[in-house]
Amino acid sequence: QAKEALGGNIRVFEEHMLRDFDDRKALEHDLREALARNEFELLYQAQVDIKTLELRGLEALSRWNHPSRGIISPNLFIPLAEGMGLIGQLGKLVLESACKEAMRWKRPLKVSVNISPLQLLERGFAESVAKILHETGLPPKRLELEITETVLLEDRDGAVAVVSDLRSLGLTVALDDFGTGYSSLAILRDIPFDTLKLDKSFVRDIATNDLAATLVRLVVDIGSRLGKTVIVEGVETRAQHEKILQIGGLLSQGFLFARPARSEKLAFLRDDEQSAGLIEDFAH
Ligand code: C2E
Ligand code: MG
Ligand code: MG
Ligand code: MG
């Protein structure tokens, strides 16, 4: 049932399922209602130290629980919201929920929230983040905002300025999906970010392909030399995990360690004494 809402496991309504124009119009109409009624839910996926399996933080991943279509993927509704000029409003809702939720956790873990380029570049974005931090009481150092390099294509100087403003609030900024865009090296130079998230497409073949492994090694090395925290995304198998251990990667996020799940399902967020902050489900 959709109740489990585990990311990746169940069928999620994706872009290619939008058959025609009428369908899109209908969905746009529903999205407005969804915002008013808040039909969105956040799942959380662990980011772990690949050696010790200690938790470093959790990434918040949005789902839209559509009353008749079921769970809709962010890959579909985020672009839809962007196109409708609603991403600022939706993004605020997401950020607010994530900060509130993180305040309920028994451990002072970091929460990472995805920010779309249009949202980041909206006037007053950094101020709105400061307001949410203030209102929820979440210490800024417990918040990481994930942005992608596509933001540079929109407005390079604007993006650099906002990122600097955000970091001066005391939060950290991650560069998401690194390696998939057009300006990888320029962005390393220009954007003052803290964390580099290597896209999952680079991890897929590392256990079987030397070239793929070398590329990951290089990026981990570049990130480390630049003083960034490097997170390797999309680790699904033991073989990939072994390889990353060899390579010397530090942090990782992937289905092998934990799938995105509802906050209340994550025991390590509830029971302070019992768990050492390790991923307990990871028992092979
Ligand atoms: P992302 O930020 O790169 O998030 C990681 C995506 O990879 C998530 O997909 C996650 O479920 C998936 N993933 C994690 N580990 C693995 C793995 O081992 N293998 C595979 N194949 N996939 C893995 P999800 O939740 O469907 O989100 C897709 C994208 O939607 C996110 O990619 C992010 O760009 C965007 N997104 C999600 N929530 C939000 C949001 O609240 N706001 C914005 N602006 N974008 C969001
Ligand atoms: Mg992300
Ligand atoms: Mg990513
Ligand atoms: Mg992505």
From TrEMBL:
Report which residue ranges the record marks as coiled coil.
Answer: none
> Where does the EAL domain start and stop, copy by copy?
24-274
Q: Per UniProt, which keywords does this protein have?
A: Membrane, Transmembrane, Transmembrane helix
- Give the organism, scientific name: Paracoccus benzoatiresistens
Q: Which residues of the full protein are shown?
A: 376 to 659 of 659
Q: Quote the protein name from its UniProt record.
A: EAL domain-containing protein
